[in-house]
Amino acid sequence: MALADFVAPRTEGLIDYIGAFAVTTGHGTQELAERFERDNDQYNSIMAKALADRLAEAFAEYLHKRVRMEWGYGKEEHLTHEELIAEKYRGIRPAPGYPACPDHTEKPILFDLLKVHEATGIVLTESYAMFPAASVCGLYFAHKEAHYFAVSAIGKDQVESYAVRKRHDGCRGRALARTGVGI
């Protein structure tokens, strides 16, 4: 299974979309957490970071709802809070580094496409972490059968093939070594 399975092939002549996003609620969170730490208040330091992380996920989820409405396939949604939490809606929003697309080296493509730094102030570090920490980026898929899955164990031949394709596509092939996906 691959995320590409949830994109209509050109040969079918269908109009299809995927969306891309990057959000943050982390500006100022590190400074707030450090202030709490200076006051020996570890609890509120941890809570400030956790709250910022949850707000970033909520923001991405809110935008996903807007996408479903604006693209039209979510206009008839009348989901309860429980159904929303259980993701009973159509579509998914996978993010680099999570089970369906574990390769963090895909983030620069999203950052370039969306001009993330200019629009949000989010910085991508050399190891592909996002700063501020309470930041999320990913894709929106509308396919009726789209669902989350985990990329399972892969063989050496698959890693080698992926490394060649990453280099061929000009997408920082040597980044595989930095992310632990080595040969």
Account of the 3D structure:
This protein has two domains: 15-152, Cobalamin-dependent Methionine Synthase, domain 1; 153-183. Helix content is 40%, strand content 10%. The chain has seven helices and four strands; from the N terminus they run βαααααβββαα. The protein has helices at 29-38, 42-70, 81-85, 107-114, 116-120, 156-168, 175-178, and strands at residues 18-24, 123-124, 130-131, 135-141. It has a two-stranded antiparallel ribbon. Strand 2 (123-124) and strand 3 form a beta hairpin. Helix 1 (29-38) packs antiparallel against helix 2 (42-70). The longest helix has 29 residues, at 42-70. The radius of gyration is 18 Å and the shape is globular. Mean pLDDT is 88; it is low at 170-183.
Reconstruct the topology from this structure.
Blueprint (H helix, E strand, L loop, with lengths): L17 E7 L4 H10 L3 H29 L10 H5 L21 H8 L1 H5 L2 E2 L5 E2 L3 E7 L14 H13 L6 H4 L5
Antiparallel strand pairs: 1-4, 2-3
Summarize the structure.
The protein has 2 domains: 15-152, Cobalamin-dependent Methionine Synthase, domain 1, CATH 3.10.196; 153-183.
Tell me the number of strands: 4
CATH class categorisation of the largest domain: Alpha Beta
Q: Give the helix proportion (percent range).
A: 40-55%
Largest sheet: 2 strands, antiparallel
Average pLDDT figure? 88
Q: List low-confidence stretches.
A: 170-183
Shape, per Cα inertia axes = globular
Instruction: Please state the structural category.
Output: mainly alpha
Question: What is the helix tally?
Answer: 7
Q: How would you name the CATH homologous superfamily of the largest domain?
A: Vitamin B12-dependent methionine synthase, activation domain
Strands of the largest sheet, in order across it? 1-4
- How many domains make up the coordinates? 2
